[in-house]
Amino acid sequence: DTKVETRQFQAETRKVLDIVINSLYTERDIFVRELVSNAADALEKYRHISLTEKPEFDKDVPLEINIDCDAKRHRLTITDTGIGMTREELETNLGTIAHSGSGKFLEELAEAAKKDINLIGQFGVGFYSVFMVAKRVRVQTRSWDGSEGHEWESDGAGTYTIRECPGLHRGTKIIIELKDDAEDYANKFTIERIIKQYSNFVPFPIKVDGKTVNTVQAIWTRSRSEITEEEYTEFYKFIANAVDEPMYRLHFSTDAPLAINALLYVPKENYELMGMGRMQPAVNLYCQKVLIDQHSEHILPEWLRFLKGVVDSEDLPLNISRQALQDNALVHRLRKVLTKRFLKFLADEAKNNPEKYAEFWKTFGIFLKEGATSDFEYRDEIGKLLRFESSATEPGEMTSLDDYIDRMKEGQDAIYYINGPSRSAVEHGPYVEMFKKRDIEIIYTLEPIDDFVLSHMGTYRDKKLVSADRADLRLPEAADKEDKGETPAETLPEEQVKEICSFIKEVLGDKVQEVKPSTRLVDSPAMIVNVDGLMTSSMERVLRATAR
Ligand code: ADP
Ligand code: MG
Predict the structure, then answer these.
(1) Is the peptide bond before 257 cis (omega within 30 degrees of 0)?
(2) Which parts of this chain are annotated as the region A (predicted)?
(3) Considering the entire predicted model, what is its pTM?
């Protein structure tokens, strides 16, 4: 008690405290979830460390979370036997916001709080939510390395103190003195209810006044037939901190080439589309039920960052460090197997339930497009999943490239597409005239990124993907030769055609490279085409816009 230090919270931390305390007020229950999830994280970390470092200190203390409700003294205590914190860790973890670029993080947080307070659960504000209910909080903690224990104390108003605290066991004890209007959180039935709602799948016993209240078993290792729909949905809400129900679920196991148990979910909403900032990976990597890498960046490509869930592989070395994951050959194989399996799942869903897949495409298609432009490895699998409007679909309806190919004309060896800001703009433009006339289907790429996707892919099932604004475009010969007679080159004498072209070139000057007669127009007098075919006009527009 001799060395008490008083510190100011970092300015950002104070802001977070302010946002959390003021905007989450009606969702106070979630502070229990946040503290329990921190306790579970600390236990997971200890379980991993005990395999890699073989620590001696307090090594026989069981891995569990104990919650003590003291209704008389309006006090709630949450104790875990996880890794604990050293003095420095205590200061960094509970005095500052560790997130990189915290300014941006705060903006997103404030935005989220305005839109939907439930979204705030997606952000790592965790610990500070305790001040929604607490007058005063003490955190007593001792690291797994056996160094001296410390107590952190604060009322959440701007400062905190840290002092030495001898005689602690490994782990962390959080003692909460409840505000007068939050006394109910010292009621054990309230706490049990909240744990069942939010923390049921924490893989360590959570004991309330000595009795275990959660389902400790790892759901993904159980057989599919034993798991109910409710359990699956509950687990999704738990793992994704979500309030919605998932759109898709994929639970599978493999033995070769790797032994894998995976349970993956597609959420219902795409928060990136809602302007909530970039999603972070949210699939956890386990090895024989031991958490190796939470929210792993290594086991799925970045463009699948919308997936939530767990992957467990017995083949990974249990003591692998997080740093080693990046270059590990097994992890690379794991990533490939998972990605292919998930894309196959989507293809099956698209076939068996096209309406639902259309919904998925609307919400998450942008991620697959990102994959198509960044990951050549899965080109064919992603190509199968792409959807576009075309001259053969009703407005708002979509077609796949496979269906397009089925409808291709005899002699047609390419898939054609044209970009435009809207369907009607495209349909009234000159590029589609000859397609219409010859009854050749053309895909409408109505999003600027679509041209990048298709030109990056280059081919699909051996068919070239060709933008209709290319100068060298050659449509398959029309069945009826009548077409020929109407082409300007033949209705005007060649000499005059040349004169008109050079007149137009003179007027336009450097704005165009060349003016040539064409057989591609039906009603329009002229159109602008793309000479080198490297970039479509819409790609150029995008690049010009981003270069500004
Ligand atoms: P997050 O869990 O998203 O990192 P929190 O605000 O919930 O954010 O917690 C901040 C940090 O404090 C955690 O990352 C962890 O390092 C530390 N911490 C919180 N609770 C515990 C605990 N019970 N045991 C050990 N460390 C903890
Ligand atoms: Mg947390």
Answers:
(1) yes
(2) 1-322
(3) 0.78
